[in-house]
Design a protein that fits this description.
The structure is a homodimer. Chain A has about 475 residues and is α/β, with parallel strands linked by helices. Chain A folds into 2 domains: about 5-225 and about 430-445, Aldehyde Dehydrogenase, Chain A, domain 1, CATH 3.40.605; about 230-405, Aldehyde Dehydrogenase, Chain A, domain 2, CATH 3.40.309. The first copy, chain A, contains 15 helices and 18 strands. In chain A, helix 4 runs parallel beside helix 5 (about 130-140) and helix 9 runs parallel beside helix 10.
Chain lengths: ~475, ~475
């Protein structure tokens, strides 16, 4: 191992104890300081990001940086709220039905140094200071950030700003650092000092890293957000009520950011005889040519697109093109029957500006084809409230398929809030019980510890009888809301 | 695959949708019905368990069955409480700082059919109707239970009682069934219809199953509770104040159930010159000979014990013996220095009636040797409150090592309550963010789903605006306890 990587890992390991000993309120201050420093550096960072990623400065990168600093501050709110600690107090109870109960108290503690693999497609929000970093730091875990090669300079610069802001805010040395290169990333993933890892990217890349994480002598949790086809079902009623608007919204969503969103709608299910071909062609043809993030992604896209286009029964509604550096979107179409009979490749994610329309003849056929889909991050219905019976028949299948369901909307916007869920059954994620966006993302980097029979003075503050942090705590089974009702 | 196994898996898959559609209150009724049926069958089940496991009927098996039915009913309380659903409502907010927020609502849903591998050492509480089954059924997941070969008949009979009770209570057909044999267990673990698995047992067995679970084309969460050495640190003050009582408590704890508890104290750290050798010898020699659960466990124990006994610097304080069917306990001793220099085998779990005393000369040496230990389920301190400074110096190391910390108590009792934590960093468990005992065990079998922009009539009950289930919900970031204060 290189001296540099070893010193980063050693520093992260050294930071684990002081980070774990920090109070949530103090950590909220660290996150605020990082957010302030990034906002202050916007004029430097945004052009750097644009140069390396080909993404437009406004509104895209400007909005993404705002999302990133908002996210850091929202985790500050989570820390000040305190519910994330899950503090629970059970007093000793000689009458406990299964036998006398000792005094036992439970709280979550940081899991330890965390390795975060940055994504290519969101150089701020899913990269150096993105959601994984924010939630791991909020949890009290040191973060070793593996930079994405698609924006190395931005990563180095963002990393320096984060480090300086943390140091100025009094955070422990070694709490955060950036490493580069696949080899160092893999070496770090195998290192016993790393206690958890997270990743956003392709199925192939994420699965390879997951396999390494779980094959270690000491396997560690690996939170990989991988691929998703994001099916969208349009009902006959929705076509009749607002078909052209749906065609336009769809084209905008699947071509957004050159289709390089993990929530890109890759499949649109339309009733046979929908009559929207002209609207779809017009909407897709109107989309501007856009550059891809990097050569690896554009060549991968071209190859996947050729596979899908070549599948039996797939026809081309709009043939996208490329001038070598930019791409216009491609729209393909097939029938549910041909789709079900085709090789699995037509049902998998195609990362880039392309999507496939699948026409269905009736609800039974639609349900059959949905049941054959891989799970993913999202599933969407465009329908009318008057079709409630039809829609209710689809919801169990869609719930099985995804972590987020949408109604009359498009999946490419992912808000950051308390109720957000960005995850789903594999291959959406390698950890289907978790989310990588929203306040619950912090749960990935915490583990529970119970304290049995300790005198008050030796208990952590969160569990002391007087509740010095004024945390919401379940006590003897009574939740904090019931307690307040008394 | 055998027809019988295939039909069990097919039935579990068919039960997933109706189970997911059941309300928590209805599922609480199912669990109560199972608990009542098992209590009613105690006179049949306890002698059957005793015959197969060699465990004494009273108080051990009688107490264990009481614990098991209590646990089922406690999960009923969890279901009626509703907080486990994590229902969260964020209304649309055009002023949300990162950009307009859609209406988004989050709730947990069952992960799907779950395969539970039963343990040998608790034929009720960690077997057919044990904690994993109770928590998975509570979550709304069908359960396929792989019986432990150490109590096949008890497993078959318990399984029949559970199935009948569920059917009589109106639960979906296929919600629960029992399978037998390693081959069927492994086949089921690889089956795409299984969405999660849990296990309690040895490191070798659990790791082999974990490796299968994570190597599937679609990897699944595997909750394995494996091995633990459960270190106990005794301070100089505790030795001075009540050394003989500690010696007695230790002997009782490590020899309990012939040492076949995953929380057996395998290491006792005593200050050098503790002067307790005679008390320890007397306490250990007084322990009665007890049979082991089965031949595989007794031969495994004998082999591991020979390894530890043969390590350099290890001396025998009490040589246990066996008449071929029962064992008396063995007590070994070494110094911190010899322990640190010895092969890793002395630091690993030895499942059976044996334990190792490690003497330390000062706090620095103690901390060094603790830092070299594998993590586990528990870590214990016997100390005096007047030694708070010394103890505070140990707590960060002990917290790193375990999921449950104990003060002046013994780890072999594991209460079932809201604050319990039975888990820890690997090899205590393969999933260090979770617990297998206590109400939080239900979290393992739930995954989050967010609903974006749905009309009220199409939302699940838990998320509808009028809150028909009267769940505690965080709404627009405001937690339920703050809401009640208004």
């Amino acid at each position: 191992m290189g001296t540099s990587l070893d010193s980063v890992l050693a520093a992260a390991a050294s930071a684990a104890a002081p980070a774990a000993a920090s109070t949530p309120t103090v950590r909220a201050g660290w996150l605020d300081a990082v957010a302030d420093a990034l906002d202050a550096a916007a004029a430097e960072l945004i052009p750097l990001a644009a140069a390396e990623t080909h993404l437009p400065e406004a509104p895209r990168l400007k909005g993404e940086l705002a999302r990133t600093t908002f996210q850091l501050r929202l985790f500050g709110d989570v820390l000040r709220d305190g519910a994330f600690l899950g503090a629970t107090v059970d007093h000793a109870d000689p009458e406990w039905p299964m036998g006398p109960r000792p005094d036992i108290r439970r709280v979550l503690v940081p899991i330890g140094p965390t390795l975060v693999f940055a994504a290519s497609n969101f150089p701020f929000a899913f990269s150096v200071a993105g959601g994984d970093t924010a939630s791991a730091l909020a949890a009290g875990c040191p973060v070793v950030l593996k930079a994405h090669p698609g924006h190395e300079e931005l990563s180095t610069r963002t990393g320096a700003i984060v480090r300086e802001a943390l140091a100025a805010a009094g955070a422990p040395a070694g709490l955060f650092d950036v490493i580069h290169g696949v080899e160092d990333g893999v070496t770090a993933l195998k290192d016993p000092r790393i206690a958890a890892a997270s990743f956003t990217g392709s199925v192939a890349g994420g699965r390879a890293l997951f396999d390494i994480a779980v094959s270690r002598p000491t396997p560690i949790p690996f939170y990989g957000e991988l691929g998703s086809v994001n099916p969208v079902v349009v009902t006959p009623g929705a076509v009749a009520a607002r078909g052209p608007a749906i065609a336009k919204g769809y084209a905008g969503s699947f071509s957004l950011g050159a289709g390089q969103f993990c929530t890109k709608p890759g499949l649109l299910f339309l009733p046979a005889g929908h009559g929207l071909d002209e609207d779809l062609r017009a909407a897709v043809t109107a989309a501007a040519a856009q550059p891809m993030l990097n050569d690896r992604i554009s060549s991968g896209f071209t190859q996947r697109l050729d596979e899908v286009r070549g599948a039996p029964g797939v026809e081309v509604l709009v043939a996208g093109g490329t001038d070598g550096s930019t791409f216009t979107p491609t729209l393909l179409a097939t029938t549910a029957k041909a789709f079900a009979e085709a090789d699995a490749t037509v049902r998998e994610e195609c990362f880039g500006p392309a999507s496939l329309i699948v026409t269905y003849t009736d609800q039974a056929e639609l349900l059959d084809v949905l049941d054959g889909l891989e799970p993913g991050l999202t599933a969407t219905v465009h329908g009318e409230e008057s079709e409630a019976e039809l829609v209710r028949g689809l919801l169990p299948s869609l719930t099985r398929l995804a972590g987020r369901l949408l109604w009359n909307d498009w999946p490419t916007g992912v808000t950051v809030s308390w109720a957000q869920q960005h995850g789903g059954p594999y291959p959406a994620t390698t950890a289907p019980t978790t989310t990588s966006v929203g306040t619950a993302a912090i749960e990935r980097f915490l583990r529970p510890v119970a304290w049995q029979g300790f005198p008050d003075a030796l208990l952590p503050d969160a569990l002391q009888e007087a509740n010095p942090w004024q945390l919401p705590r379940r006590t003897d089974g009574v939740p904090p809301w019931a307690r307040n009702r008394e």
